[in-house]
Amino acid sequence: MGRFRTWLSFRMCTGVALTVIALSYGGQAIYLTAKAELAQILLLRAWQQGQLSKQATVPWPWADTQPVALLNVPALSLQQVVLDSHSGEALAFGPGLVSVGNSHVLAGHRDSHFEYLRNLEVGDALTLRHLSGSVARYRITEIFVLDVRESIDYVPPEESLTLITCYPFDALAAGGPLRYVIQGTLTI
Q: Is 159 left (phi over 0), alpha (psi -120 to 50) or beta?
């Protein structure tokens, strides 16, 4: 009888430990999703304040990034606040803007803010509204996968909008050598 109780106690402890581990992983995912959603609300509020003042506004007192544009994706009824930084910390809150000449490159995480890129198609429209009030309209002309081991010196075409994220979308680990690239051409 004593061995049975020991065995039963061991099984219960193992079950509780496995449940705690599973909840911690699930809890982490829920926490990150909630943080990203709350950040978008605060970023949108800062974007709206910036539109009124015509200057970038920090979304919370300790923020090291600020909204500089608003991306609109009509095909998916989606809009996102775009940040002035593409650092790893900033990308946790939204896509980041990199200007290259007369072109704009937006970088975002494949498993959060840019997860929807897989649903876009050639011909879809994109709009980028800047704090200054100017609006640029683009049409998606190309979608491709780039291997950064081979094409480290990729330069986007003039007057284009490029959306870029890690690829494949369902990879277990982020940061591999492949990038999913959506190229949009200015339609004026």
A: left
